[in-house]
Amino acid sequence: MPPRILIADDNPVVRTTLRHLLESLQACEILEAEDGEEAVARALELHPDLTILDLAMPRVDGLNAARKISQTLPAMPIVMYTMHWSPHLEVEAMKYGVRKLILKTRSSVLVSTVQELLAARASAPQPSPNVLPPVSLEGAPPVEPASPPPADTSSAASPETLEANAPDDPPPDPNAA
Question: Which of 48, 122, 139, 143 falls between 20 and 30 A from 34, CA-CA?
Fold first, then answer.
């Protein structure tokens, strides 16, 4: 079965160009999304082998789409293909689950990155869905699945917050003057 690649970009010319470029190099199935929200929905529904996200997209930007996708599908490689690059953006993108950030002016780097990531994914051992046999615990109460932790929407902690929460500091004495 050929690898499935999801391309999410709000520019149809970019999507078409990437489709033709990738299909000319190897047999693959290309899926498309016009914005970040559609990219998340398609990735979670279709489980592509690799996702290529633009950064600046309507409804949900590429960083937030990457975060949502990587939370559910952490093993799926995500590549950000954008006109905007900075060392800071590259670091932030990695925090959101992006494996590589590539400038749109460097298509050859995108192609080699896609090929490397697909080859690595194909050679990685795939976990079996039934590694352990099911265990029957008669009379045991049902166990609810753990909820994922809430998304961290706060900015970096200030030095004052870090000092107040330092584990080595004793709690303040309410009777001290």
Answer: 122
